[in-house]
Specification:
The complex is a heterodimer. By secondary structure, chain A is mainly α. Chain A has one domain: Helix Hairpins (Orthogonal Bundle). Helices cover 74% and strands 0% of the residues of chain A. The termini of chain A are far apart. Chain B has 6 helices and no strands. The longest helix of chain B has 26 residues. Classes of the chains: A mainly alpha, B mainly alpha. At the A-B interface, helix 1, helix 2 and helix 3 of A face helix 1, helix 2, helix 3, helix 4 and helix 5 of B.
């Protein structure tokens, strides 16, 4: 018999795949803006899981918390991009390998 | 029927997410990310979370990505800025770590997914995911997180203004 609805496991696999793609982006890319975008991918991947469990168990908390995740993402992007602009004013590059003042 | 919609949407999202990570121009990455956000909004609609799907389009694909595009244009980033490859220097350690993390997370998730008995969903009422339902929960059970989020947004706003000033006096 053909299943009528999408099983929970499919949503979780999609979420895990997108999360791993986000981790790969954060760890290997050198352009600081692309690293930021990869963090957004990871936040979105978590939202899929939250809403999938909500849908599966008929709750509302997951949707509320994905709403909160969106608030945190908005705050993070505004502050983070302001930091990138301030950094760019001191050193005109977006290459992460050149920002090593606080390293070690 | 839902599976026929889910698989193309999920594939679209994964391909565009890979496009974000492996694109060598920042504008291309940002456009892929907008496409991924729209695909995820479709997936949220498939999960009956209509309100979150609309918020996803308005907040992520609208506001946040406009901010990203604005900064990319402001910094005048071009394709050639990644001279010498798009990945970081001396990244053998990072690559190995990335591989271990990716394999580990995917293994653990598939382990959980394929052994747990999870595929009998609850019967959803018609009001699931509507603005009325979400709003009622938000303003009764989750008032404290709501207020904390407002303080967080205020702090972020003040922080962005302070960081954007040229001289602190």
């Amino acid at each position: 018999m053909l299943e009528n609805t999408v099983p929970l496991s499919h949503y979780l696999m999609l979420s895990a795949t997108l999360f791993v793609i986000g981790i790969v982006g954060v760890l290997i890319r050198r352009n600081v803006i692309v690293v930021f975008m990869s963090i957004e991918i990871m936040l979105n991947a978590v939202n899929i899981s939250l809403i999938a469990f909500d849908n599966y168990m008929n709750l509302s908390g997951g949707q509320i918390f994905s709403f909160m995740v969106m608030c945190v993402a908005a705050a993070e992007v505004s502050v983070g991009l302001a930091i990138i602009i301030a950094l760019h004013r001191n050193k005109p590059t977006v290459n992460l390998d050149e920002f090593n003042l606080l390293k070690w | 029927m839902e599976l026929l919609i889910f698989y193309p949407l999920a594939g679209f999202c994964v391909v565009l997410a890979l496009g974000v990570v492996f694109n060598d121009s920042p504008v291309g990455s940002a456009l892929s990310l907008i496409g991924m956000m729209l695909g995820l909004a479709g997936i949220f609609v498939l999960q009956q979370a209509h309100f979150i799907a609309i918020l996803q389009i308005i907040i992520y694909a609208g506001a946040i990505m406009v901010l990203f595009m604005f900064v990319i244009m402001l910094l005048n980033l071009k394709k050639g800025d990644d001279a010498g490859g798009i990945v970081r220097e001396r990244n053998l350690l990072l690559s190995v770590l990335t591989g271990i993390l990716a394999i580990g997370i995917l293994y653990k998730i598939s382990d959980i997914v394929f052994t747990a008995k999870v595929d009998t969903p609850a019967i959803l009422p018609d009001s699931f995911g509507t603005v009325a339902n979400i709003g009622e929960t938000l303003f009764t059970d989750f008032v404290l997180p709501f207020e904390v989020a407002s303080i967080l947004l205020l702090a972020a706003m003040v922080g962005a203004v302070v960081l954007a000033k040229t001289k602190l006096d």
